[in-house]
Design goal:
The chain is of the alpha/beta class and about 300 residues long. The protein is about 25% helix and about 25% strand. The strands form 4 sheets. Strands 1, 2, 3, 4, 5, 6 and 17 form a 7-stranded mixed sheet that branches. A 5-stranded parallel sheet has the order 8-15-9-10-11. The mean pLDDT is about 95. The structure holds flavin-adenine dinucleotide.
């Protein structure tokens, strides 16, 4: 153990939420440490076109620009994996074999997509294989679409996608049982229903079809994958933070402070999975931290 310097705030995760908070806190001339392990979800987004002032930008560019902006305001950035956060007189943040101390902590570590094992999935991810209606639903407009998922929520997604984007839609449910209560509605909506296990995405440059375990090939131009995500929250385990009724998302107040005083959480960990929202939450939390730091 080294480092007994006390930061004003340690930010964990350099996605849009963490970076936006870092930029604000840096511009308040606060001592800020940002720890990030790299390779977050935003870097998988290849065409972000719903962020104000950007006609189209890659997630990677947003992160690189954000890092540069934060550094320019003297935010210290370290690459590392945070394994534990504890609270004593100060917050203790553990990364590798180093313990860092801070008055406040802001967590913006996002989530990790649940994907079934399907060959060539990563080849098409972000270009013709999407995971989020708000991010990429628009890109399926008037295209031959296959939706793959494993829950009744996927049926609801299919009906919504039909309403907004395309009439040419097949739903593949990766389950054993057909959703009897929705069969009639899907038929009325003219949405093809297939029950079974997809094993491969077919196509050289362009996506052409989804191959099923029984050899059937379902032609498509675009795919929406709908298997949810898990939160990157293992390092918060010892803090007993309050979560929602499903024991999934963390509960925060209107400035994104969790049930533990001084620990702020933004982004998908509290349920919002958009760059602009994560960034906005980071800004709100940082403005609140500005006030709290003056009071300390
Ligand atoms: C394919 C794809 C396309 C998308 N398209 C859009 C779009 O068009 N528009 C839009 O608004 N949103 C889009 N999104 C969603 C957007 O990426 C998320 O909303 C955004 O990532 C949330 O920001 P964040 O700050 O929480 O985290 P993230 O970008 O997930 O960043 C979290 C960071 O924390 C780091 N981290 C995690 N655990 C640890 C740890 N223990 N220690 C240290 N660091 C850690 C990660 O490595 C990562 O760098 C898309 C997502 C995907 C996957």
């Amino acid at each position: 153990m080294t480092e007994e310097f006390i930061y004003d705030c340690i930010i964990i995760g350099a996605g849009p939420g963490g970076l936006q908070a870092a930029i604000y806190l840096g511009r308040y001339n606060r001592r800020v440490l940002l720890i990030d392990r790299g390779g977050g979800r935003t870097t998988h987004a290849r065409h972000i076109e719903n962020f104000l002032t950007q006609k189209a930008i890659t997630g990677r560019e947003i992160i690189e620009l954000g890092m540069e902006q934060a550094r320019n305001f003297h935010v210290e950035i370290k690459k590392g994996v945070v394994t534990k956060v504890a609270k004593g007189a100060n917050f203790e943040v553990y990364a590798g074999d180093v313990r860092y101390l801070a008055r406040f902590v802001l967590v913006s570590t996002g989530a990790t997509e649940n994907f079934p094992s399907i060959e060539s999935l990563h080849k098409f991810l972000g270009t013709t294989l999407f995971t989020c209606i708000d991010c990429d639903g628009y890109r399926t407009t008037n295209k031959k679409l296959v939706i793959i998922g494993n829950s009744i929520k996927t049926v609801h997604l299919a009906i919504a996608m039909k309403e907004m984007y395309t009439r040419d839609l097949t739903l593949i449910l990766y389950t054993d049982k057909a959703p009897e209560e929705y069969k009639e509605e899907l038929k009325e909506e003219n949405i093809g229903l297939i029950i079974g296990r997809p094993v491969r995405f077919i196509g050289d440059e362009k996506l052409e079809a989804v191959e099923m375990h029984d050899g059937r090939k379902i032609p498509c131009e675009v795919v929406m994958s709908h298997f949810g995500y898990k939160l990157n929250d293992s390092f918060l385990g010892g803090l007993n933070l309050k979560r929602d009724r499903d024991n999934f998302k963390f509960i925060t107040n209107s400035t994104f402070e969790s049930s533990l005083s001084g620990l702020y959480i933004v982004g998908p960990l509290i349920g919002n999975d958009q760059v602009v929202i994560a960034a906005g939450e980071g800004a709100v939390a940082a403005i609140e931290l500005k006030k709290r730091l003056i009071e300390v």
